[in-house]
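Chain and conformation:
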Amino acid sequence: MVQKLVNALPIASRWKLAFKTAPFIALILIVKTIANYFKLDLLSLNPLFTAIISANIFLIGFLITGVLSDYKESERLPGDLSASIESMADEGLILYKDKATVEAKDYIKKLLELNSNIILWFHKQEKTETLYKNLLSLNDSFLAFEKQTQSNFIVRLKQEQNIIRRLIRRIHTIRETSFLGTGYAIAEIITSILVLGFIFINMNPFHESLFFVGFISFVLIYMIFFIKDLDNPFGYSLEDNMVEEISLKPILDSKKRLQIYYNQLT
């Protein structure tokens, strides 16, 4: 509910996680105020408590380091997909310019369909198996090309086909696999315990305690959301509700160019 409301707000993406965290902080401060009013804040601020905060921050830093490696790798994957598809299209256009065959035209159409399905797949509107079928259908074109061109031509196409298949498999793995799920669990447990501790710890003056409780809780909860967001850099669908997403501009641009190429052949 909170995520849908945040997504509907006309705010910059870099601030959406902060707005997503804000309701939790407001709730914590309200409960903290109620606990103080009814004299339920009976715990004292122990040095061990600050040590737990430091340990949790260290754990969060470790998790961020892990997910950042996948995120940096993911940044280049759409561009690599686009480059391989357009390289395959170049070969088809060369063959059509030389032979003007129906098979070459049909081949460009298959690449356009593959590119379109990849975009839908990123938004979880198409299955991974469909992309594999699109790639497999290119083999029929390769067989037809054997009578029209040299074998080196087919070898280059097969190499690009294999690269695309590997990139799709890698993106699928990154999207469907979480980095150290048990690490997330312990970070969430420690953060939850710390927040409960903040609520029931007696700190004076009270207005200063609200500031520090709100600030520290905001940092811890925000970082949990941030890690989960980074862990899936391909969360374009509504069900994922991600903020830090990899740009799909390269693959969108390649679709436009392929459409132009195909229209020129008709």
In short: The two ends are 48 Å apart (CA to CA).
